[in-house]
Write a structure and sequence with these properties.
The complex is a heterodimer of chains A (about 600) and B (about 600).
Chain A: H1 5-15, H2 18-30, H3 33-66, H4 69-118, H5 123-126, H6 129-171, H7 173-180, H8 182-220, H9 222-227, H10 231-283, H11 289-330, E1 350-360, E2 363-374, E3 378-383, H12 389-396, E4 404-409, E5 412-413, H13 419-423, E6 426-429, E7 438-439, H14 440-445, H15 453-462, H16 466-470, E8 479-480, H17 489-503, E9 507-511, H18 519-532, E10 537-541, E11 553-558, E12 561-566, H19 568-574, H20 577-586
Parallel strand pairs in A: 3-10, 3-11, 6-9, 9-10
Antiparallel strand pairs in A: 1-2, 1-4, 4-5, 7-8, 11-12
Helix pairs in contact in A: 2-11, 3-4, 3-6, 4-6, 4-11, 6-7, 6-8, 6-11, 7-10, 8-10, 8-11, 10-11
Chain B: H1 2-16, H2 20-29, H3 33-65, H4 69-118, H5 121-126, H6 129-171, H7 173-220, H8 222-227, H9 231-285, H10 290-331, E1 350-359, E2 362-372, E3 377-382, H11 388-393, E4 403-408, E5 411-412, H12 418-424, E6 425-428, E7 437-438, H13 439-443, H14 452-461, H15 465-470, E8 478-479, H16 488-501, E9 506-510, H17 518-531, E10 536-540, H18 544-549, E11 552-557, E12 560-563, H19 575-588
Parallel strand pairs in B: 3-10, 3-11, 6-9, 9-10
Antiparallel strand pairs in B: 1-2, 1-4, 4-5, 7-8, 11-12
The chains are: A alpha/beta (about 600), B alpha/beta (about 600).
The structure holds adenosine-5'-triphosphate (2 copies) and magnesium ion (2 copies).
One adenosine-5'-triphosphate sits at the interface of chains A and B.
Amino acid sequence: MPETYEELEEDLMKSTKGSRVFRRLMGDILSQRRDTAILVTAVMITAVAGTLYPLALGDAINGIVDGNVNLLVLFAASFLGLYLLSFFSNRLRTISSTKLAQRSIKNIRDSAFRTLQNVPVSFYGKIKMGYLISRISNDAESLSDFLTFQLPQVVAGVSTVILSISIMIYLDLGLSLYALIIVPVMMAFTFGIQGKVRRNYLRTRKTIAAVTGSMAENIGAIRAIKSFNVEDRTYQKFDRLNRDNFTANMKAAFVSSFYGASITVIESVGIAIVIVAGAMQLISGAITVGLLVAFIIYVQEFFDPVLQLSQLYNSYQSAAVGLVRIYGIIDSELEKNGAGTSLPVTDWNTLEFKDVGFSYGKSRALERVNLRIERGDKIAIVGHTGAGKTTLSNLVLRFYSPGEGKVTVDGRDLTGIEMKSWRRLVAPVLQDPFLFRGSVMENIRFSRPAVTEDEIEHLATQYGMKEIFESLPEGIQTQVGEMGRNLSEGQRQAISVMRAFIRDSPIMVLDEPTSQIDPYSERIIMDALRIYLKDKTLILITHRFSMVSLADRIIVVDMGQIVDSGNFDELMSRKGVFSELYNLQHGSFADS
Amino acid sequence: MQQIEKAGKKNVTRIFSFLKPLVFSFRYISAKKWFFVVLMIAAVISTVARLLVPVYIGSSVSGIESGNLSLAETFALLIIYASIISGVTRFGVNYIAQYLAQTYAYNLTGDLFSHILRKKFSFYESQTSGDLLSRGTMDVRASMNFIVSTMSQLIPTMLLILVSIYFLFSINPAYSLSFILAVPVLIYLGIVFQRKQRSHWRNIRANYGRMNEELQENIVGQRVVRGFTAEDEEIGKFTGTTQEYYSEYMKVARLRGFYNNLMPFVISAAATSVLLYGGYTTLIARGDVGPLVSVINIFTMMSFPVGFMGRLIVFSENARASIDRISVVLDSRDIEDPVAGEGSPTGFELTMNDVTFHREKRLVLDGVNLSVRRGEVLGIGGKTAAGKSTLVNLIPRFYDPDSGSIKIDGTDIRNFPLRELRRKVALVPQEINVLSGSFLDNIAFGNGEVDRDRAKWAADIAQISGFIESLPESYDSMIGERGITLSGGQKQRVGVARAVYEKPEILILDDATASVDPKTELDMLRAIKNDLKDLSILLVTHRESALKFCDRVLMVENGKLVRKETEEADVHEDPAVFREGGVNIAGDV
Ligand SMILES: Nc1ncnc2c1ncn2[C@@H]1O[C@H](COP(=O)(O)OP(=O)(O)OP(=O)(O)O)[C@@H](O)[C@H]1O
Ligand SMILES: Nc1ncnc2c1ncn2[C@@H]1O[C@H](COP(=O)(O)OP(=O)(O)OP(=O)(O)O)[C@@H](O)[C@H]1O
Ligand SMILES: [Mg+2]
Ligand SMILES: [Mg+2]
């Protein structure tokens, strides 16, 4: 079983054939019927016009030779007309090929993004952000060249090849065989080198993903890098990846340049064979000079697109490798969210953990948890760091599903309930108060876009957060920088709490909502919470024992198990983990 | 007169302005001058050899016509030789072009990254990491693509045009007139084409950056998105961005469709005019049509390079938009120098004198005075957003105060090399950056040897060793990116261990234990105090229990540091409050 996504993908790359992803891509493209039709038509018109100008030119020249001015003007005009025609058809071709290409890229990116929104949360534990970004942005972009420029060439090239081969065979079968003798050689050469080309592109895609990944991670951790003076080492590490990428690209460049050069030589051998064979047949009287000249022209015409096809081949390989990787993401197993198949919930009465056990991969986090929460209950979850409190809330929010036992809502297994409908009943404040770029207002409204700004201003006062928001430079309209870094930690947390308040869901799951907020503000928020929570259910995780007064039942978690529960007095009298922690925070630690 | 000259000059520079990215690239490949020369030579040989093939074909046909088989064979061989030469040199051209382009990309990426590493903290606040990332990856690539195609194609194409022009003139100067007339039209079209695309390429590149930003936000913040069932809204936003990207591309495609095909068409129109004029004069004079046919063929041949030039303009605009974005990073002077200065702080006494600091024009610190003695534990409290983090961030010089001074043992910290200062002052921030890698990598993060025992010692102090050692691979266990596989308190303790590992002289804990339970927190503080002798600690915290641990407590209030008033602290100490609260709620329900 692969541990990380990269390993999984490695397997995928080995097992997937380029042709299969290509077929899938073509399916996507061909489904855009109108533009495909336009493109093919445009390419055909250009090709036909291309074969016609020599004729028009020839006739115009004949006109000159015959001294016929009318003929000259007529054919010169049609000469120009054909160019005009191909101007229009080329223009269509440019536009429709870009449209097909960019539309496909957009579709692929959108589907990948959609997948990301629907994969299980655990997916993100396995993959680096930079890798993901590299796949969705860089790899998709590698299709652009292939689809915009190369693919239309194929359509044009293939038709020319077929046309010239048929004409050659029509003219003289024997000589055609000589001319085509080189084709198997070329095919063998191409197939022989294919594996190498593909492996090389594979490597370049991997190394660029590593560069992107490292850059992303280091930019994210830049503050730590600077405060620990490790710029140099970071740079050296990065440089190694950057250099690997350079080397991989040079290897790929070697093979593809070699391939292109070899095809040129093979072509000339083909022409030489025709010349020699033709000369012998000519001498034996089998063919005429005119035929031979025509033949040589056709052989060249046949090889031109083949040469282009070889360029396409490089581009195709590079695109195919990217495609396998993006399709790999698109095909990631989605979370069973029960949409469409299972019934939604609109209300609830009891939430129950029955013998729940849970592991993150190999590491055990919860063991035989039994817990019953009734509508209107207010429970606090306390315990040492790493005890499994957040994990417990993750199960309530259905970010994860239990490994053993089950979580039920009114007796129904939570996994059998339409996920979103359940999540709508729960408003979370996560331990990490993530904010989006945009205004504070937008961040708050994120949880319920229907509320108006006035209402939010009003509610902020009501929930005791006015003062904190007033400390922002432009109040609630302040722009939040990336990850809210231009705000103080407490301000971020307050926004995240406000966001959950606005949601107005019947269940509140608060994971350390005030860990960075000063006691004074905390008290104001608590007073507000007390009123706010009247008809709601509260699941509160906290190390702040001042917050515990909000709860009427306290659950003590230790090493993944519920070790105690009861109200404040009961727990204090039992002298367990709770009273120990409580006394430390509020009692007489100094002499302990 | 002068103006005209100037305008003329301007136009000349404008014609070649599409080569600007090439000029930019020179600083990254100038060390490879010789490769460039070889490339030029190879390109010339390759083109000439390639042009020889049709000539030989013609000659061999003449040979065959005269029934001379051996002549045909000779030319057949010559064709193969010429192709081999052209193949080999073509290989050289392509490979060297790739080599130069990849060298450019490698050097530019490295340069960009080292610039990113050297920026001041304030720089990162003006940029998002998703967008920075796209500058470091896609923008580099877009500009590199231009270099590949110019290097490998520009010279053969130019050569083709020159040879064609030469033939044109040598056949009949009168015929070349129409070509000369076509040139300004082509240039004009080229310039218009270039100018019209510019804004679109800028938008494309900017949209690409935005796409990266959105991807990143949705990856990092995915639990928030899910928790609030906002998946569909986020998908909507993202598809909006890709839609914009798409439509900008289509705008370029429409321009390209028109101009890029119009340019070869101009050549064809010129050819037609030659055909008409030349045809008519030949017809009247009853002369030889041969030269006319050749001239027309030359014109036809030229439409390819002209089309290629059009394409080059497209690449060039893409590259220019990219280079502009890259230059924002390279040219920003927001740089700090880690080694300037001298000496090393000994960290025995830290003082702040009348320090003020503004953030976005708001006064956050207003005349702060402070002094911390060796071995002292100073608690810093204060309301949310009072400026505590701002204050402590000044000590390792993440930011510099607007006025006032910060001194260690009487020396202004600005005199020390940043590197030395930061070695002695370790700050554990509120938000810990954990990198993917093992616990060992993350704890032994600072410069110096990776010392397992020292890491264990640091982990012991940070109260995280128990957890780490309970894992099957102990210190070599891997942590997910951004510490995704750790609990909140574990991440913070890794942060503390990392700082302790450095054996600093001043340790600043900026609410670094907010997610750690109070017992573990106190155990940690005690261990730090016992094991790191003479260490001065600045402890920013909201927790009473932690403040009690301090020798002295100051509060940040209205931008000043004031002594803590003790009465306020006692509010939570009476267990009755809790009982009361509990009862109240119970009563309400
Ligand atoms: N995504 C994950 N992958 C692997 N292990 C994890 C993951 N998340 C948490 N863990 C582990 O599970 C255990 C319980 O973590 P959890 O986050 O539930 O702790 P917690 O009680 O919330 O602690 P804290 O008070 O520090 O936030 C920890 O040992 C942690 O390392
Ligand atoms: N990078 C920044 N750019 C602009 N303003 C900032 C930045 N960082 C903080 N601020 C603002 O400066 C003020 C003080 O912030 P600071 O982070 O110092 O507060 P704090 O006392 O540490 O609060 P907390 O207890 O919430 O961490 C706040 O109003 C905040 O919005
Ligand atoms: Mg937690
Ligand atoms: Mg702070």
